[in-house]
Amino acid sequence: MTTHDDLARAVLAACESRGLMVATAESCTGGMVAAALTDIAGSSVVVERGFVTYSNEAKVEMLGVDLQTLARHGAVSGETAREMAVGALDHSRADIAVSVTGIAGPGGGSAEKPVGLVWFAVARRNGNVAAHQRRFGDLGRDPVRREARDLALRLLLEEAERER
Questions:
Q1: Among candidates 142, 77, 72, 76, which has minimal Cα distance to 105?
Q2: CB count, 10 Å around CB of 116?
Q3: What is the three-class DSSP state of 67?
Q4: Quick one: pLDDT band at residue 19, thresholds 50, 70, 90?
Q5: What is 77-140 written as a DSSP string?
Q6: Count of domains for the chain
Q7: Ramachandran region of residue 58, left (φ > 0), alpha (ψ -120 to 50) or beta?
Q8: What is the pLDDT of residues 101-152, one digit of tens each?
Q9: Rounded to whole angstroms, how far apart are CA atoms 70 and 97?
Q10: Is 11 within 8 Å of 22 (Cβ atoms)?
Q11: Virtual CA dihedral for 50, 54, 59, 63, nearest 10 degrees?
Q12: CATH number of the domain bearing residue 131
């Protein structure tokens, strides 16, 4: 099995054993996190829904990300990642949500936000939200997206295993 298969199975098992439902809100990964989970038979017990919000308009319309957040901080920021994860909860029946927003490349980076910069957030229905930044570096588009998928799965697993 590949790493992401193992991670996805672990997320599903941890969530199922605790009666938790999951939602994903993805930008640069384009649905790879949801796909990793739903590639596994029986995942519908845990996966409530996934949002692919590649454009800023989609983030606003589908997740309720504030236009002012996007204007002040940009799509690739901790603030936007947090609002994406909370929005996924607000627009679903899920207990836990993970969001991913970043710059996979090859273009689109800047000195402040280089290619390979990805922000993640995990939100829980109880109001807890945590954002995480990772700078994968300019590894190439596919490796950045795969690394982001795997980290999002790890964050979901950590949150599902956390005692509440």
A1: 142
A2: 22
A3: helix
A4: very high
A5: SHHHHHHHHHHHHHTSS-SEEEEEEE--SSS---SSS-TTEEEEEEEETTS-EEEEEEE--S--
A6: 1
A7: alpha
A8: 999 999 999 999 999 999 999 999 988 999 999 999 999 999 999 999 999 9
A9: 20
A10: yes
A11: 0
A12: 3.90.950.20
CA atoms of 5 and 26, how far apart (whole Å)? 18
The amino acid at 36: A
Single out the residue of 88, 152, 70, 94 nearest to residue 119, CA to CA.
152
Look up residue 142 and give its two tokens. 């596919």
Contact status, residue 37 vs residue 8, Cβ threshold 8 Å: yes
What confidence category does residue 2 fall into, taking pLDDT thresholds of 50, 70 and 90? low
Residue 109 carries which side chain, given as an amino acid letter?
G
Count of positions (residues) in the chain: 164
Give me the amino acid identity at 133.
Answer: Q
What is the residue range of 41's domain? 3-161
Higher pLDDT: 142 or 1? It is 142
Distance separating alpha carbons of residues 139 and 143, to the nearest angstrom: 6
Tokens 């993640």 locate to 120
> What are the structure tokens assigned to 18, written together?
């605790």
